[in-house]
């Protein structure tokens, strides 16, 4: 084929790609029109933005369809996750400002704190009348509590019980008393002991810098809840949050691992790096993306408030006991390392045996972890 012929053929193929791209854009516009219909329906019926099972089924279906037509399943998943992420953001922006009980009166104890300010903004934007009670306002507590529908305790863990005991006598009988602390064994018991009305434990699994409630987890631990009092949890769902219901004991047992143990393990790693004065920037020059991700988590911890993490880690004797057991496991691991020098293979053999046993215990989660971490690694590679 002559040079002019090659150029014409290449131009023809490029034009086909342009035409297909325009067609894709038209299809996305039509899809967005349907999304807006979904937004209107959810808004009317006060339905949650995020439906995890629905999204998981969609992704699986798109991956399978992609395989059938010869496309890379991971490539398609990334495309459709971006599409669905945008769709959720549109829905959240429109629906999140809807109030389940607009006009209801809410008092946030500790409303000047970071989490208190966050929820004051969200409730106010959704049409609620929000008041704040701070340490200097207790002389007006009776007035502030008059005709309120929800009292939300948002104070540090070690001040939660005292705040509950102090405000409970002033609450209307039909008011909902709820708290935001991460230790429910203390707060829910205190609320039930001091207040005869509806009691609800809430644990938002996010921090005050959260800009969107979309797909954020809120754990609900009912203490004394009636069906008609569930509007509080429903409001979080309307904002886009994922509601996880749990009993008090289960919540505290899981949080001991998810928060206290995890944060302490991160602290331990960071403290070791500090004690050995490791050159962090130099290690990053040699690092894999997964090491960078792990170091990011360490750096993130030490860039935040130590008081907050000390509250979480030292909250209960049960948490401290778990940490002691964690440190005991280090001594067991030391036995493996001590027997693993170049002349003695027993330590390495034991390491391999333990590794296989633990891998079998993790089971299918291992494949899921590789897939999810692979996605995060690819994003880090793109950025750095």
Molecular structure report:
There is one protein chain. The chain is an alpha/beta fold. The chain has 3 domains: 3-95, Chorismate Mutase Domain, subunit A, CATH 1.20.59.10; 105-245, Rossmann fold, CATH 3.40.50; 251-383, 6-phosphogluconate dehydrogenase C-terminal like domain (6-phosphogluconate dehydrogenase C-terminal fold, Orthogonal Bundle), CATH 1.10.3660. It is 64% helix and 9% strand. The chain has 15 helices and 7 strands. The chain has helices spanning 3-45, 52-68, 73-95, 114-125, 141-144, 157-167, 184-194, 231-238, 248-275, 280-286, 289-302, 306-313, 317-338, 346-362, 365-383; strands spanning 105-109, 129-133, 150-153, 176-179, 199-204, 217-224, 242-245. The chain has a 7-stranded mixed sheet, sandwiched between helices. Strand 6 (217-224), helix 8 (231-238) and strand 7 form a beta-alpha-beta unit. Helix 2 runs antiparallel to helix 3. The chain is globular and about 90 Å long.
């Amino acid at each position: 084929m002559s040079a002019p012929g090659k150029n014409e053929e290449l131009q023809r193929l490029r034009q086909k790609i342009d035409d297909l791209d325009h067609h894709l854009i038209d299809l996305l516009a039509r899809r967005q029109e349907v999304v807006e219909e979904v937004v209107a329906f959810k808004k009317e019926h006060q339905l949650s933005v995020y439906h995890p099972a629905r999204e998981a089924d969609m992704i699986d279906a798109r991956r399978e369809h992609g395989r059938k037509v010869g496309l890379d399943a991971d490539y398609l998943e990334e495309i459709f996750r971006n599409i669905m992420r945008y769709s959720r953001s549109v829905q959240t922006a429109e629906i999140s400002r809807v109030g389940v009980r607009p006009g209801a009166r809410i008092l946030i104890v500790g409303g000047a704190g970071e989490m208190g300010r966050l929820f004051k903004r969200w409730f106010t934007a959704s049409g609620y009348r929000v008041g704040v009670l701070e340490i200097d306002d207790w002389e007006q507590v009776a007035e502030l509590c008059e005709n309120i529908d929800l009292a939300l305790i948002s104070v540090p863990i070690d001040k939660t019980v005292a705040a509950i005991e102090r405000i409970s006598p002033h609450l209307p009988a039909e008011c909902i008393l709820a708290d935001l602390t991460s230790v429910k064994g203390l707060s829910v018991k205190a609320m039930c002991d001091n207040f005869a009305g509806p009691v609800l434990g809430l644990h938002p699994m996010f921090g005050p810098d959260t800009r969107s409630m979309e797909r954020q987890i809120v754990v609900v631990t009912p203490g004394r809840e009636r069906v008609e009092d569930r509007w509080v949890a429903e409001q979080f769902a309307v904002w886009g949050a994922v509601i996880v219901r749990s009993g008090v004991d289960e919540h505290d047992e899981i949080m001991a691992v998810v928060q206290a143990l995890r944060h302490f393990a991160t602290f331990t790693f960071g403290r070791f790096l500090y004690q050995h004065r490791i050159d962090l920037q130099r290690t990053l020059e040699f690092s894999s993306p997964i090491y960078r991700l792990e170091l990011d988590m360490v750096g993130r911890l030490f860039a935040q408030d130590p008081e907050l993490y000390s509250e979480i880690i030292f909250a209960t004797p049960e948490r401290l006991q778990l940490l002691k057991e964690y440190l005991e496991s280090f001594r067991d691991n030391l036995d493996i390392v001590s027997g693993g020098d170049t002349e003695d293979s027993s330590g390495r053999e034991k390491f391999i045996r333990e590794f296989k046993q633990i891998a079998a215990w993790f089971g299918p989660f291992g494949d899921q972890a590789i897939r999810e971490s692979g996605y995060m690694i690819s994003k880090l590679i793109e950025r750095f």
